[in-house]
Design a protein that fits this description.
homodimer; Rossmann fold; 2 domains; seven-stranded mixed beta sheet; four-stranded parallel beta sheet; 15 strands
């Protein structure tokens, strides 16, 4: 069952979690001085409106009309009740998912790529540099830059550049220039940290260029809250007062934050992060200041981390292979407002395949984690004999991840 | 701009073009006797309700509730006005597209795969065999069989099996068994005709198995008319009286028929088929009785054909590489009710990339043909200074066709 919003119901403001946090957010620290960073420190990387959004305490931030004009290409996204999955599970729970896979790039990532490109465009930026691991973020930014006629340079981790050519081709079709990273060592397989270094170096070395990040930061989660704001209205259309639990997979935390933050002030709603057992930042990491990248070039962020030199195994859910977490998500878990659970990779593929065979759609491996979380919550509802309402974020489709399904089917999965 | 139908507005009947044809349809002929085929001839291949739909003259055919229950996983599909494409073209035309890419398999094909699987299920079939070239049809049937717990065996042209592993993986994820065809010669690259032979041989040799075809036949086009029936209602929502022209790419003719047939009785609406210059059945073929397959095992159909032994070049729009056309489409072109145009491959990629950079979505190469047709019609409206209304079928996405875009970008396209 689909619950659709007309396009004139697209939200006109983003929800800001910062003023509603139980305790004030700790500031990011300069990597050299370890003092709180100021706007001037960030100006070489980001346009001023994004720097302001990073620190604002306004409860809502208006979405510019020029951004809504692009978001409207695929938003509002559908809220769908997974009745066939419910039936297969024999659960009294009602399972809803917000389908972010319908965006041009196939995931939630364009929700922030579009405003980031917009603020750069109006600020006079001609070119944006970024990094991408498996390619989801790079494709979203390439799409967004095409809409505003901005040049886009993507530093893609060399191993992915070689193994996942389809993502490179998608970025190029939208007009981006894609190079393998590290650029200075053609024999090195690369890493996300190294690609961040390449992109930051590019951005600070050119006056016409800014840098762009696809997760972790406050302004990125702010942009993603459009997901949860829409979902609230659609759940009401479905006749539900509130969800009992809201679930998202968690890498850096942006798709989880997007669906969960608009519910954080309602104490009756549980919030649940699902992460891979092989990169268990929230369930196995320490809460402390750490760098966002391997090389230690970024500000220090207060977050759950496995250490910025942690090298996660090469699981297929590339979007969940990050050593840290968004400071907002980290603070919510630390305060007990948000729960976290970790699953081994094989269980998440089992869940994704059950979803594909009942609901039809093929999920991204990252999304398989959220589905596994929803299935376990549905089973808990069955055990309790309760009609619980479960909402999860369907963050992306798996059409460009089919090799992962093949590796699962034929027993070639790496990592746990 | 999106025009969305609530799911209780999903059509409850398919439109049948046959009674509205200017002249009675000529019957298919038995390949051996050259006499009109009867139901008994087709019974080893298809369940009786599909055989009845193949020849019915009822103006509308009810869609079973159990079929609607599955179609509702993605239908009604959106009708979208391509305002950003219009702006890029500087045209006074209003361009609308019906987005069939949102189905689980990524194209219009599940519209017929689902009812075909359903009628087989209720008729007691346990297993369906089919062929697939590039893999769109095989994936659609694999998805449909998963919904009704039917076994599915797909004979995939060996060259595609090797070059397009993602499609094979998608079919397997939905539970289908996929083998390379021809099965009896592992060194042969295969052909669609050969794969049809493998699938038909499988179906007739087993009591528990039927055969299924994804285009060309009357009942397939019947099932696809749900596209045009929805589009009519959505265009009315958009405030349009009627389209001036309705456009679809044409291989066997099912996506074109799906959107165009519901408009055929309105003489004010032009109908336009777009085909590849390298396989120009409607613009360069002869209208005559010909076999549906290379081996001459199928009934003879009255259609435009390049000859059943015609071998089209290996263009990327694999779904348009067919030597013939649906008898219904052929009769409409022959009578002058439908127009046809052929484009060289490179022009259709140019159109597809313009679409991706303005409207965001990445089209399948087949769909690029319909987009090119829409762009030329928009330019004609510009030249005439007229606000024409253009409707085309966005038959599928291109996420699994990215190699084609890469070949275009780097000058490696084969065929004209």
């Amino acid at each position: 069952m689909h619950f659709l919003l007309d396009e004139d119901k697209i939200p006109t403001a983003w929800y800001n979690a910062v003023p509603d946090m139980a305790e004030p957010m700790q500031p990011p620290l300069h990597p050299g001085t370890r003092e709180p960073v100021g706007p001037a420190d960030l100006a070489p990387l980001f346009p001023m409106p994004l720097i302001e959004q990073e620190v604002t305490t306004a409860p809502w931030v208006d979405i510019p009309g020029e951004v809504i004009d692009i978001l409207r290409l695929w938003r509002p996204t559908p809220l769908i009740r997974a009745t066939r999955l419910e039936k297969a599970l024999g659960t009294p729970a009602r399972i809803y998912y917000k389908d972010e896979s319908v965006s041009p790039a196939g995931s939630h990532k364009p929700n922030t790529a579009v405003p980031q490109a917009f603020y750069n465009k109006v600020g006079g930026t001609l070119r944006i540099a970024t990094e991408t691991g498996a390619g989801q973020w790079g494709s979203a930014l390439a799409f967004a830059c095409a809409q505003y006629d901005l040049d886009c340079k993507v530093y893609m981790v060399r191993a992915s550049y070689k193994q996942k050519p389809y993502r490179r081709m998608l970025m190029e079709t939208w007009g981006a220039e894609v190079v393998a990273s590290p650029v200075d060592d053609p024999d090195h397989p690369g890493s996300l940290g190294g690609a961040i270094s390449d992109a930051v170096r590019d951005a600070v070395s050119r006056d016409d260029t800014h840098y762009s990040l696809g997760s972790v930061l406050n302004h990125v989660l702010l942009h993603q809250t459009i997901i949860g704001v829409e979902a609230k209205e659609q759940l009401a259309m479905a006749g539900e007062t509130r969800p009992d639990v809201v679930i998202g997979s968690c890498g850096g935390g942006s798709n989880l934050g997007g669906i969960a933050l608009p519910y954080m002030t309602d104490a009756a709603v549980r919030l649940l992060a699902v992460e891979p057992a092989s990169c268990p930042t929230l369930t196995g990491g320490r809460f402390e200041y750490d760098f966002g990248d391997v090389a230690g070039m970024t500000p220090l962020l207060p977050m759950y981390t496995l250490g910025h030199d942690f090298v996660p195994p090469s699981i297929h859910a590339g979007g969940l292979r990050y050593h840290g977490d968004s400071p907002i998500i980290s603070a919510l878990v630390k305060s007990g407002r948000m729960e976290a659970v970790a699953y081994p990779q094989a269980k998440t593929f089992e869940a994704a395949i059950l979803f594909a065979r009942t609901e039809g759609k093929l999920p991204a491996p990252e999304t398989g984690h959220a589905i596994m979380g929803a299935i376990d919550e549905a089973k808990a509802a069955t055990d309790a004999g309760e009609e619980r309402v479960i909402l999860f974020n369907y963050s992306g489709h798996g059409f460009l991840d089919l090799q992962a399904y093949d590796d699962y089917k034929y027993g070639r999965l790496e990592g746990a």
